[in-house]
Amino acid sequence: MNREIRRPHMITRTPEVRQAPLWQRQQAAAITDPAQLIERLGLDRALLAAACRAAEPFRLRVPEPYVSRMRPGDPDDPLLRQVLPLDVECDDVAGFVDDPVADGEAMRAPGLLHKYPGRVLLVTTGACAVHCRYCFRRHFPYADANPARDAWDAALAYISERPDISEVILSGGDPLSLSDGRLAALAGALGEIPHLKRLRVHSRTPVVLPERITDALLEWLRPGRFETILVIHANHAREVDDALRQGMDRLRAAGVTLLNQSVLLRGVNDRVEDLKALSETLFQAGVLPYYLHQLDPVRGAAHFLVPDTRALALHRQLAASLPGYLVPRLVRELPGRESKTPLTESIPECRKT
Ligand SMILES: *Cc1c(COP(=O)(O)O)cnc(C)c1O
Ligand code: SF4
């Protein structure tokens, strides 16, 4: 007691030490009220009623560091479009269903999807730092799939028993919405499985919350026991800001391989200039484009669809204007396949040969 009085700086410092990391506070403070987002960006209040209706089945969620990259007053801003609930989401469109990629059928243990040879995908959490309106998991039954702390045991046992599995993909939801303590524990447990060679993390959090790249993250993600890969998810060049570049620099310096996956989205990135700028901006940030996903037909996302013929034309134009390593593979996920399917294959006239 007396000592604290003599050294007052100790007293003021203690609460800071106990405080959650900045990214967790930013994540907790994310905007979830459509009225607040509309006000923050100075948008037309007429958008509000629809936003509230569409946010009912799948809530609005967007953290401030991402909002700060949006253009105020522009309802068509490509970043805003990815997060603002719209009335059209409530329309039922034929072919747009709850589980378009048949995840339910591939679940081998709680949260463990084994669809493709050699690699498994672990749904570590249902939570995400941002809610993307086009998300194919927007109706995913996370309550069943989201293993509690010790329920990872069943997934770990499944992987241990199968020496042909060489890579584990942490996915979600968004694995980086979990604390580094939990992730380090999981990475440690995976590290004890001798046949695993690679640990991959699929996350959009670094894009919307660049502060997520912390020392504690680097601690468990830097290559050591595994080669490690971080696949971020950016859809538009304007999502890449200085804070994200700095985070990517740190990961790259630590030896983590950096890739990006995007979704082709009408009104967001469906012009060849958008896609070209995205690839070039990512490369400047040390990130290689990996996949450009054709939209999964999930209920509520039909307004984002770019028809296949147009998607293929865009991809051809992109290939004609960039070096090959900056052209992401245009793919879709079809139930029952052993890998993602290049889009060309699913076009009837290409199947003939
Ligand atoms: C996309 C996906 C993967 C990873 O596929 P890669 O082609 O290796 O990137 C693995 N498992 C599931 C279930 C997937 O959906
Ligand atoms: S971050 Fe990924 S999993 Fe989460 S809502 Fe967006 S697309 Fe879906």
Structure description:
The protein folds into two domains: 25-90, no CATH class; 103-351, Aldolase class I (TIM Barrel, Alpha-Beta Barrel). 35% of the residues lie in helices and 14% in strands. The longest helix has 13 residues, at 242-254. It is globular and about 55 Å long. The protein starts with a helix and ends with a helix. It has a ten-stranded mixed beta sheet. α10 (180-191) runs parallel beside α12 and α14 (272-284) packs across α15 (308-319). The protein is α/β, with parallel strands linked by helices and 353 residues long. The structure holds pyridoxal-5'-phosphate and iron/sulfur cluster. Pyridoxal-5'-phosphate binds at residues 106, 113, 115-116, 119, 121, 169, 333, 339-340.
Summarize this, please?
Residues 114-337 form the Radical SAM core domain. The chain has 353 residues and is α/β, with parallel strands linked by helices.
The CATH superfamily name of the largest domain is Aldolase class I
* Shape by Cα distribution: globular
Low-confidence spans: pLDDT under 50, at least 5 residues?
1-11, 349-353
Question: What is the count of DSSP helices, taking H or I runs of 4+ residues?
Answer: 16
Helix/strand structural class: alpha/beta
User: What gap, in angstroms, lies between the N and C termini?
Assistant: 83 Å
The CATH topology of the largest domain is given as TIM Barrel
Radius of gyration: 21 Å
The molecules bound to the chains, other than polymers, are: pyridoxal-5'-phosphate, iron/sulfur cluster
List the secondary-structure elements in sequence, H or E: HHHHHHHEEEHHEHEHHEHEHEHEEH
Number of domains: 2
CATH class of the largest domain reads: Alpha Beta
Number of strands: 10
CATH architecture of the largest domain: Alpha-Beta Barrel
Strand content bin: 5-15%
InterPro entries: Aldolase_TIM, EpmB, Lys_aminomutase/Glu_NH3_mut, rSAM, rSAM_sf
Cofactor: [4Fe-4S] cluster; pyridoxal 5'-phosphate
Modified residues (N6-(pyridoxal phosphate)lysine): 340
Binding site for [4Fe-4S] cluster: 128, 132, 135
